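From the pipeline queue, job 12 of 40. The input is one protein chain; the requested action is below.

Action: predict structure.
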Amino acid sequence: MIIGLTGRTCAGKDSVARLLDKSRFTVIDEDGLGHQALAASKESLREAFGDCVIASDGSVDRRVLGPMVFADAEKLGMLNAITHPWMKRETMRLCREAEEEGRIAVINAALLESMGFVPACDAVILVTADPSTRERRALSRDGMTPERFRDRDRSQEDIGRTLAASGVRTFEIANDGDEDTLSRQVNILCAKLLEEALLWERRQG
C-alpha cells in the first residue's frame, strides 16, 4: 500500500510524517532525496545555473540555489527536470522495498502531483493550514524572510488542485491548531489506513 502525503510550505506535512506509527509506516522524504539528487547531479546543475551554485567545498550550495529557483518559475522547471527523474526512480524502489516488508509506504512530497506520484498512490493525505498560519511558522520557526516565503508559496499554488480530478481517495488534515489536535487527527487516520491495509493483505493472501 502506498500513501501520498502533501501540502504547501509550512502546512505541517513533516509534522504529520513524524506522528505516523513507525512500526508500520515507512516515510520516504522527498526533501531528503532531493538533497541526494543535487549531489548526484552537481555537474548538470553547474552547467544550468553557473559556478555560483557550487560551494567552496565542491558541494551544491542550496543557500544560493534555493532563492534563485523559487523566485523564477523557468529556473525551477530547469532544476526539476534535472533532479526529478533520479528522485522518482529512487522513490519507487523504496516503495517496493517497504511493500515487500509488509509496511505502508508514505511518499512525503510537496510536489506529489507534479512529480507524477499520484497514480501510484492508494490514497493521499493533504495537510492544510491557513496562509497566515503558514507564514508565521515560516518566519518564526524556519527563519524565512517574508519575501522568500511568498516566493516559495507562489511556486506551490497548484498543490492539491488535481487530486479530485485524479480520482484518488484524499484525506484532508487541517493543521491550524495545536500539536494535540494534529496528533488526534493523525491517530484516527492511521487506524483507518492500517485496517484497510490488513483487509487488502487478506484479499491478496
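Job complete. The beta strands are 2-7, 25-29, 104-108, 123-128, 169-174.
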